[in-house]
Amino acid sequence: MSAPILSATDLRRRYGHPRTGFEAVKGVDISLAPGELFALLGTNGAGKTSTMELLEGIARPSAGRVEIAGLDPFTERRRLRPLMGIVLQEAGFSGDLTVLETAHMWAGTMAAPRPVEEALAIVDVLDRAEVPVQSLSGGERRRLDLALAIMGRPRILFLDEPTTGLDPESRHRAWEILTGLLDSGTAIVLTTHYLEEAERLADRVAIMHEGRVTVSGTTEEIVAAQPSHISFRTPEVPLPALPGVHVSTAAGRTELRTSDLQRTLRDLLTWAGDTVRLTDLRASSASLEQAFLDIATSGEHPTDRAAA
Q1: CA-CA distance, 121 to 148, in Å (whole number)?
Q2: Residue 171: which residues within 8 A CB-CB, separation 6 or more?
Q3: Burial class (CB in 10 A: 0-12, 13-18, 19+), 306
């Protein structure tokens, strides 16, 4: 594996008093290699934005260290600027300028920018070059934001919920663009509320809760650590002992949590046979969504299962 372009160690951020203020980021570790996408997930208030601002060098950590290409993004931001691209939730460009005028204005802030037409073509908005920004659709605006972010051929790209509010077609087009950037060696840090987006694009995922990375790893690793679910209306006869299965009953339904869905279903159906009716039987495999929901609602901080 390539040497990391980004590394963060025991990253912390506290607002207010240095000892008694609110700690929004509580010891986060992250590493990112060239051509890799790292997705940072979490509910509102989990600490994603505070963490991203530390990684981008917008804010100084209260403790811990961030390095991008061996440099501190806060104290050496000027040197790092040519290596970084950032797409915020709201870019704030003038709506009166055309797409081409906006791109030329942005390119003028760089020492060696990518040709403007090339950047616009990569994100598929070159045909809208003469259209005022305010007349673009939501998807076109986000693609323009991305064009400006890659204008300087960044080695690392920070994307803060880049597809929020886009229709499915625009979202899939954005995914294709990001995949192309990854193939070219660009490293990407992504925050998103779309779990499908993380599953589709991310090499590794971290789920934050109350300022901590609660679980991290590949999607497969995270899902493998989650139980599958079987539920049905509670029958009148007691269930048999099912090894390794957690059974709970509430509101007239019985739920089984198991690490081996196929085996548990087989044992359950064999026991029921023709004599016990399992009404409204439902079975669902473990998923990233279930891992996210379990973490978001548990209020617990289990040990991280893989290094971020």
Answers
A1: 12
A2: 139, 163, 194, 197
A3: middle
308 in a structural domain? no
* Dihedral class, residue 109 (left if φ above 0, else alpha if ψ from -120 to 50, else beta): alpha
Residue 117: CATH number of its domain: 3.40.50.300
Alpha-carbon dihedral sign for residues 284, 288, 289, 295 = positive
Question: How confident is the model over 84-115, as pLDDT tens digits?
Answer: 999 876 666 778 899 999 999 999 988 889 99
Q: Do 172 and 268 lie in a common domain?
A: no
CB contact at 8 A, 29 and 10: yes
Q: Retrieve residue 256's tokens.
A: 């089984």
Q: 16 lies in which domain range?
A: 6-223
Q: Tokens at residue 50, please?
A: 């505070």
Hey, what are 104's tokens?
A: 């030329």
Q: pTM of the predicted model, to two decimals?
A: 0.82
Q: Which residues pair with 236 in a beta bridge?
A: none
Cα separation, 51 vs 46, in Å, equals 10
Once rounded to an integer, what is the mean pLDDT over residues 213-236? 91
> Does some domain include residue 296?
no
Find the mean pLDDT for residues 125-150. 91
The total domain count for the chain is: 2
